[in-house]
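Folding Task

Wanted — backbone structure
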Amino acid sequence: MKTPIVNFLKSYQEKSPVRMHMPGHKGCGILGFEGMDLTEIYGADELFAAEGIIKESEQNASSLFGCPTYYSTQGSTLCIQTMCTILCQDAKSKGKKPKILAGRNAHRSFIHAAALLDFEIEWLYGNSDYLSCTISTETLEKEIVENNPTAVYLTNPDYLGNLLDIKSLASICKKHDVLLAIDNAHGAYLRFLEPSLHPIDLGADLCCDSAHKTLPVLTGGAYLHLSDSLNQVWKNDVKHFMEYFSSTSPSYLIMASLDAANEVLDTTFKKSLSECIQRVDVLKNALIQHGYTILSGEPMKITISTKEFGYTGNEIANFLMECDIYPEFYDSDYIVLMPSPYNTKDDLKRLETCLCKIERKSVVFNSFHKLERARKVMSVRQALFAPSTMIEVSKSLGQVCSSVSVSCPPAILPVIPGEVIGESSVEVMKYYGIETVRVVKE
C-alpha cells in the first residue's frame, strides 16, 4: 500500500529547499525530526479540504477499515466533537431536538461537546463500578422507549477493557431508528482481530478510534469512521464539522504516522497482533497462577483487580515503577497495563518477573461508596459557562457542579456540570483523592 504523505514529506526534505514558509524551525530545529514537519504548502494538500495526498491516504485507511475513514491529528477528542455535531445535525434534519442517551462513563470531551452544541443528555448508569458502564440490550431498549432519544452514545472498550455486546445493542438502535455512536478510542486494533470486533463491523453508525493508543501512530493520531449509509448523507459535511473544533494547523508529523501505519496495517500487523495476543495470554495465565485476579475483556489489556491480592493498585504500580515498568493507569482498586505488538518478549518477561516477585497478602476489604443518581438543576452548557469557583470537596455538599475536572479516565463521573453535589458524590470524590471541585457561584 502506498504512503503518499510520507513520500511527499521525504521528497521535499531531500530537496534541501529554502523554506520561506512556516514552521519557524525551517526543518532544522533542536529535536532532529523537524525536516518532515511542514505546513500546507503547494503539493502538501489540506486536511479539511483534501484533494491530493491526504485524500489518497484517507482512502487507503478507508479500505483497511472497510468504511469511510477520516483523519484527526487532535485525537479522539476532535472525532467525538464531530460525532456529536453529526448526531445533532441529523436529528435537526429530521425535525427533532437532539437528545442523546449516553453511557455515564463518557469521556470529558463528550461533556464539553454537550456544552458547546447544547444538546440534551439522558444518562445510562449501567450496573458496574466507576470505570465501567455495562449496558444490556434490555436496559437499552427500556431507556430508548422511556426517553425517546435521537441517538445513543456508548464507550467501548471501557478503560478496564470491558467489551459491550455492540452487535446486539446496534440491532436495538436500528429497531427504534436511533443512531448509535461509539467511543472506540481504546479499540482501533479490534478491526484486525479474526473476526473483527470493530464497532462499525458490528453495526454502529459512527465511531472514533485513537490510533495512537493501540496502533503504531504518534500521539494525537485518530480516526473518525462512518457507516456507508450515514456517510452517504453527511460525507460533504464531515470535514466542515471537524473544522468547528480543530486547529487550522494540523500536524503533518501525525498525519505522516497515520499514513505510514496504513502500510503496516495492510501487511504485517494482523500476524504481529495475533502473536502478541498469544504472548499476553501466557502472561495472564502466569499471573493468575501467582494469585492475581485478572479481569476478562479485550485481549490487549491486562487489568488486575489488586485488592484480592492484598494491595491497592497504587501500591502495585509503585512496585512496577521501581522496576522501570510504567502502567497505563492505576487507582485504589485496579492497575491497567496496555501491551502492543511493539512490546518485545523481554518486555513481557520483565513485567511477569516484577509482578511475580510480589508476595500475596490478605485481601483488602475497603470498597468505594455506592453512587446515587444526582439531581440535575441546569443544563451542561448553563453550568459550564456560568460564573464558578473552586472549593474543597468537603464543603461542596448541595452546590451545583460546574466542571468535569473530577474525572481522569473515561469513568462514571460522580457528578456532572449542572447536577447538585450530594453526599454520595462527596464520598466518591474523597475515595478517589479528589480534593477540590468547581461549582457554580451562588
User: Anything to note?
Assistant: Residues 66-253 form a domain with the Aspartate Aminotransferase; domain 2 fold (CATH 3.40.640.10). The mean pLDDT is 94. The first strand starts at residue 69 and ends at 72. The chain is about 40% helix and 10% strand.
